[in-house]
Amino acid sequence: MASSSVNLEEIPSESLMNELLRRMKCAPKPEKRLILIGPPGSGKGTQSPIIKDEHCLCHLATGDMLRAAVSAKTPLGIKAKEAMDKGELVSDDLVVGIIDEVMKKPSCKKGFILDGFPRTVAQAQKLDEMLERQGVKIDKVLDFAIDDAVLEERISGRWIHPASGRSYHTKFAPPRVPGVDDVTGEPLIQRKDDTAAVLKSRLESFHRQTQPVCFLFP
Ligand SMILES: Nc1ncnc2c1ncn2[C@@H]1O[C@H](COP(=O)(O)OP(=O)(O)O)[C@@H](O)[C@H]1O
């Protein structure tokens, strides 16, 4: 058996124990590949971490990845920022490139949750090609069919912890301490696109470009 090059002595015992417990819990879990589709504020980002932990999957949230790229001012982030600020979709080729890469992460070995991808028919066709190359398929598509009328209150009260993507809501899911993340105590922020005006544009993009994707799945 190959000897590990990692010096385990430097890793805290609690971290080692937690990782061992996680591996024992995850080992018997079947592989699962899920797509979550729904309008902004429909609950994809809230439900994903719960599903991820229960089924030992990686959570691939294209919005979070794009926001990280924008904040790091990477070439990808600079290209994506303008569309995101307007609530429009980022170009298919940019997003397809991201997903193709991250799906290969070791943490996606048991499967993944696609949150916010595919968002166009072209992206769905590219996803089919990626899955065929990997010899895997989508097991379930969860359609968060929420009425537009309730989304503005959800979006305008949403606060997030940027580093983890954990989301809160001032009325429906308040943090234990106002304004700070329950786990790290770090400050929460509101997304630049979480305003009534930008939501209108995001909903228009959703109904025009993303909703047709739902009809691709039996
Ligand atoms: N698959 C995608 N294709 C194109 N643009 C995307 C995609 N995923 C996210 N984006 C961009 O990132 C923004 C935020 O995405 P996300 O966090 O999933 O927000 P939402 O709450 O609208 O689902 C979107 O409004 C869009 O500009």
From TrEMBL:
**Keywords (A to Z) from UniProt:** Kinase, Nucleotide-binding, Transferase
- Annotated Adenylate kinase active site lid domain ranges read 158-193
Q: Which GO terms describe its molecular function?
A: AMP kinase activity; ATP binding
The enzyme's main class, written as a single word, is transferase
State the CDD domains in the record. Answer: ADK (cd01428)
EC numbers for this chain = 2.7.4.3
The yes or no answer to whether the keyword Transit peptide is present is no
The answer to whether the entry has keyword Membrane is no
Per the similarity annotation, which family is this? Belongs to the adenylate kinase family.
Query: What role is this protein assigned?
Result: Catalyzes the reversible transfer of the terminal phosphate group between ATP and AMP. Plays an important role in cellular energy homeostasis and in adenine nucleotide metabolism.
Q: What name does the UniProt record give this protein? A: adenylate kinase
Q: Which organism is it from?
A: Gossypium schwendimanii
